[in-house]
Amino acid sequence: MLASRVTKKFQEIFASDGALLVRSPGRVNLIGEHTDYNNGFVLPAAVDKAIYLAVEPRTDDEIQLFAMDLDQSYRGTVRPPIAPSVWHWPNYILGIVDQLQGMGLTVGGFNCVFAGDIPLGAGMSSSAALENAIIFALNELFGFGLDPLTMVRHSQRSENEFVGLQCGIMDMFASMFGRKDQVIRLDCQTLDYTYFPFSAAGLRLLLLDTQVEHSLASSEYNVRRLQCEAGVKLVQKHYPGVKSLRDVSLEMLSAHVAPVDELIWQRCSFVVEENARVLAGTEDLQRGDLAAFGRKMYASHEGLSRKYEVSCPESDWLVEQAREADGVLGARQMGGGFGGCTINLVREDVIDGLVARIAPLYRKAMNRELKWYIGQIGNGTSII
Ligand code: GLA
């Protein structure tokens, strides 16, 4: 098991078996994409794939890290100001140290070893899982007494300010607040959240991994954010009280954005429609109408692909195959976009046949190997 491999490695490197062990999961998102940074609604869940992180305080002010999956170590200190590493991965940890210090907290030196089984680049938020894992661990280790929501906010800020990706709050929130067999409807404006059971008999969440590195994701992601803000500004000229797309209706967009800038209208109307899909989709879940929920997933994909333009040929192809297959209730591009995974709501009994049929077709059509995972919904960040 991964957890014991991490503990063992920690013992090997640091000759100590007193480390605290934290598990922090990745996430899936059923519906509600690109809505979090628009103060909208999302419907994510934590998964059974996670980062396992062992940590122990040191008596000096050094930070010693070891990333098992990369076989790389990093050495630094907690002396402020914390400077980013030239490598990418230590920054997820250093950024959290920087956040904690920014709150006036004293972080002592620490040793840390981690590994994970969240597929990298698959849009399942391994970075949010790592950020949550380290903030959770340091909070425990140094007795800061931070509540989970404060930790989530600082994980997000660390990613925004230290790593440099202007992501929303969904990934960190889902990873921290996940509950077994439940999806979370999060209102990203108020941060109110409600759990909905998701354990439909005979249905599974199948993740089809395009194996496309979503390299466009961060630049285009920031462009989408700006386009949404531009839409809000146009509406504000007529409705000064409007603060985000959350306060905007399709009618406002048709009246005040469509005539000025069609592309901005396209982006903003997707977001407004996607929010409505999340709300209606949770009603479907409450009624147990998974077929209606699945149709909303397809509609979400349509919008992501045509209006928001964050899909890619590989994801579109996979969704098209899903649409034509028996036993697939819904499918769509998941996460930031431009690759990663599609999330499919599928009858359990058709999964093997479906994957066996489309994997060779995918290889032929896209010249890539398809990977797939079953998304099992699990608990959020915790000590184990
Ligand atoms: C990425 C970001 C999230 C969210 C999604 C799109 O995963 O990290 O905050 O915006 O994209 O829904």
Question: Can you put this structure into words, describing what you see?
Answer:
The protein is α+β, with helices and mostly antiparallel strands and 384 residues long. It folds into two domains: 2-199, Ribosomal Protein S5, domain 2; 203-375, 2-Layer Sandwich (Alpha-Beta Plaits), CATH 3.30.70. 43% of the residues lie in helices and 22% in strands. The strands form three sheets. It has a six-stranded mixed β-sheet, with helices on both faces. A hairpin with a 7-residue loop joins strand 10 (328-333) and strand 11 (341-347). Helix 2 crosses helix 4 (148-163), helix 6 (217-236) packs across helix 8 (262-287) and helix 10 (313-324) packs antiparallel against helix 11. Alpha-D-galactopyranose binds at residues 33-34, 36-37, 167-168, 170-171, 335-336.
Q: Please summarize the sheet with the most strands.
A: 6 strands, mixed
Helix content: 40-55%
CATH architecture of the largest domain: 2-Layer Sandwich
> Which structural class is indicated by helix and strand composition?
alpha+beta
- Radius of gyration, in Å, reads 21 Å
Q: List ligands, each type once.
A: alpha-D-galactopyranose
- Cα(first) to Cα(last) distance is 13 Å
Rough outline? globular
Give the ordered list of helices and strands.
HEEEEEHEHHHEEEHHHHHEEHEE
Can you tell me the residue ranges where pLDDT is under 50 for at least 5 consecutive residues? none
Instruction: Give the tally of β-strands.
Output: 13
Number of helices: 11
Number of domains: 2
Overall pLDDT level: 96
Strand line-up across the major sheet: 5-4-6-3-1-13
CATH topology of the largest domain: Ribosomal Protein S5, domain 2
